[in-house]
Amino acid sequence: MDALLRQSGVFREGEEIPDCVMDSNDIERERGITILSKNTAVRYKETLINIVDTPGHADFGGEVERVLGMVDGCLLIVDANEGPMPQTRFVLKKALEKGLRPIVFVNKIDRDRADPHKAVDKVLDLFLELGADDDQCEFPYLFGSGLSGYAKKHLEDEGVDMKPLFEEILDHVPPPVGDPNKPLQLQVTTLDYSEYVGRIVIGRIHNGTIRVGQQAVLITESGALVKSKISKLMGFEGLKRIDIQESSAGNLVAVAGFADAYIGETITCPNDPQALPLIKVDEPTLQMTFSVNDSPFCGQEGSLVTSRQIRDRLMRELQTNVALRVEETESPDKFLVSGRGELHLGILIENMRREGYEFQVSQPQVIFREVGGRPCEPFECLVLDVPEEAVGGCIERLGQRKAEMQDMHVSSTGRTQIEFSVPARGLIGFRGEFMRLTRGAGIMNHSFLDYLFTEKC
What we know:
Structural class: alpha+beta
Radius of gyration: 24 Å
Distance between the termini: 46 Å
Shape: globular
Largest sheet: 8 strands, antiparallel
Number of helices: 11
Helix content: 10-25%
């Protein structure tokens, strides 16, 4: 992303640009991961290219699912040495189900032990495994280095800049569909807030044209119609929002004037209100109880400690975090919070802690479901990359946690990659034990696999 933004002329000459400029959240910078989906736009050869940056980890799958309707194509970035990572499976599966045709970019080809062609073969294997159609399997691929800022179609070509990638995007990604002459339809996919104009909704115009001062209707999740006026309209250029007077089908815009809009709802024409399908998000797999801190040391770490304050914060989180669920319990001091995994809930807890909230949380519990009349629980696809001397210990510990080995491969570097199918509850608390087993030299990745039959125990 940094290279695309730099070479599109978004930044002025000499401007200081931080690394991973799209990862603006403090926790994203500290952990080196993308947590929130964000959008930007660049111009290349008089063409406006809207770009949506999504997380790769399945725990933040709600962020991916809510923005997939905003795009017409996707760019899959894989490491030239490691190939597709486990978390790549989830995001790619969602993109293929939407009918998107990916462009594959094999990154970090300038690293030692890089094998770009083998990485492409691994990507094709993953496409076939996920049920991609013939057109999707005929994906174009490029090689390059994001850090060095170049892309090329063939390994023997000279790496100069990112123009080959821009050209591939123009050639391969279809133009947006939608009729500017039809009644307005804009689906809300992101919420923001400004002290000056209040709530700002961000989304894609599927049909019609939107103008400042235009009368419009919000169709809520329940089907109710809420009339309002477009008080402010903004487009995207680089990392900035720019005021515009009008925009038409296919563009991503930010709109002010709807104080009670939520993600998935539709802003449409009052004369012919037509709702778009609501955004479908996978159900949570893990739950924890958040409660008021009633220990003898309460009040020493945070200032927001009452059940009302904690409840208000959780309800506010529901407005933007579409994969989260919050239920009130019989006790007014306890709330049942369900999410997509340990990381998903852990980020919420850390954000609340930094904001000054103090509360207690219970041990995570998996959410069981009945599928076909049989009890099923969430299973994860776990991939370990460990030194040779730690292989036996890892297999033994995971066997005790009901994991089943699916594949094992020894690389030329002496490290071993092992793939497991493991119940989600078997991974609770395993990361610390894994770091001890590998003396800090192991790499662990996992993503949601499926709900499978299990014996409750």
